[in-house]
Design goal:
GO terms for molecular function: protein serine/threonine kinase activity. The protein is globular and about 55 Å long. It folds into 2 domains: 144 residues, Phosphorylase Kinase, domain 1 (2-Layer Sandwich), CATH 3.30.200; 211 residues, Orthogonal Bundle (Transferase(Phosphotransferase), domain 1), CATH 1.10.510.10. It is built from 13 helices and 15 strands. Helix content is 35%, strand content 15%.
Length: 398
């Protein structure tokens, strides 16, 4: 049995030889723990909760020692510190060659998964998709390959926290307990937090629209897959296309595979019904916006529900109004959330760009309602510079 607790108050023939880090060398957990390893916040093969997998086929255990260690070489990279480990593999801070200026986040596929053709093909598709989707607020895959049976992909390394961590620590702070300073947003007063968080989600929605324009559905939009830079004015990155689908290639059966994180999935996807994947992503961004601004969940607490029944229950559950969870939330933000999370897909914003525009239009009104004065900070849209061309990466991961 499982419980979803409402936290409102608070094809290679041979697998790679990976070597996980010793406990004494473990790096402090970072945003990339959630961001790059799908299994850290939901496995790509089954429906999942934030705490991990609830329905998936477990790969066979690795038959031999598979530890990665600091300073070990993986292809052209030298490992520095492990950032996270999950169901799909490990993520390391690494440098290319001996050049300290080429610091990357290196995702390495789990040894047990690389012997499964389906999982290996998915890893390669994720790398290829990430290589061609370059744009503001997206972490592009800048390198990918295989070395001695070790499959990897590299992305720019960003000093950031996930939105998931920010929300969690603000819940802790609201309970009156000491919160970890994972990001400046954690300690911010409520009024500026509403505005800064809404501005960040508008940028994430712009990035999602860029993905859609390139005919890719994200299919796993949630706080754990949004990165916030720790330096003002908080660069924002939408991450992890591990569950993504190419809209022009995927079959209708593939689109209804049920993979994702249930608490953020649209009703039509939860029921595995025919769905407009763009509008489903808009819904997921709306749920993320709800949780970010209210620190609560869209639905009341759901307890003791067996996994097979969870999707159907969530699909039919009555969502809460944002101001019922947080009465201090500005009205203009509630209106945006309600439209983005409409049960009827036709009642939602028609694109992620429309959602972003609605949030941007609401910002001045929210500032007036909250009594904030002075000019807002200038937005910063960053595209980390790759050290290899996307064309080279696409050719290598095929």
């Amino acid at each position: 049995m499982i419980a979803v607790n409402d936290p409102s108050p608070r094809g290679a023939a041979r697998g790679p030889r990976l070597r996980p880090v010793d406990a004494s060398h473990a790096a402090t957990p970072s945003a990339l723990t959630h961001l790059l390893i799908s299994g850290a916040a939901g496995d790509s093969c089954g429906m999942s909760l934030d705490s991990g997998i609830i329905a998936t086929s477990a790969p066979p255990a690795a038959p031999r020692d598979s530890r990665l260690r600091p300073f070990q070489r993986v292809g052209p990279y030298r490992l520095l510190a492990r950032l996270g480990r999950g169901a799909q593999g490990e993520v390391w801070k690494a440098v290319r060659g001996d050049a300290r200026s080429h610091v990357v986040a290196l995702k390495i596929l789990n040894q047990g998964l690389s012997i499964h053709p389906r999982r290996l093909a998915q890893f390669r598709r994720e790398a290829e998709r990430g290589a061609r989707l370059a744009g503001p607020s997206l972490l592009q895959v800048v390198d990918a390959g295989e070395a001695d049976g070790c499959f990897y992909m590299a992305m720019p390394y960003v000093e950031a926290a996930t939105l998931h961590d920010v929300i969690h620590e603000r819940r802790v702070r609201r309970m009156g307990e000491p919160a970890l300073p994972v990001h400046p947003l954690v300690a911010m007063a409520d009024a500026p937090y509403y505005v800064e968080a809404a501005r960040a989600l508008a940028r994430a929605a712009r990035a999602l629209d860029h993905v859609h324009v390139h005919r890719v559905a994200h299919r796993d939009v949630k706080p754990a897959n949004i990165l916030l830079e720790r330096r003002r004015p908080f660069g924002v990155y939408l991450c992890d296309l591990g569950l993504g689908r190419d809209l022009d290639l995927a079959t209708s059966e593939q689109m209804r595979d049920g993979a994702g994180t249930p608490m953020y999935m649209s009703p039509e996807r939860l029921l595995k019904a025919p769905a407009d994947e763009v509008l489903s992503d808009v819904y997921s961004m709306g749920v993320t916006l709800f949780e970010t601004l209210t620190l609560g969940r869209l639905f009341e607490t759901i307890r003791d529900v067996p996994p097979p029944a969870l999707a159907s229950l969530l699909a039919r559950a009555r969502p809460r109004r944002p101001r019922a969870v947080d009465p201090s939330l500005p009205d203009c933000f509630e209106a945006v959330i309600l439209k983005a999370t409409a049960r009827d897909p036709d009642a939602r914003f028609r694109s992620a760009a429309e959602l972003a525009s609605a949030l941007e239009r609401a910002l001045p009104e929210a500032r007036r309602e909250l009594g904030l004065v002075g000019p807002p900070p200038r937005p910063r849209f960053l595209t980390p510079r790759p050290h290899r061309s996307p064309a080279d990466v696409r050719a290598e991961v095929r």
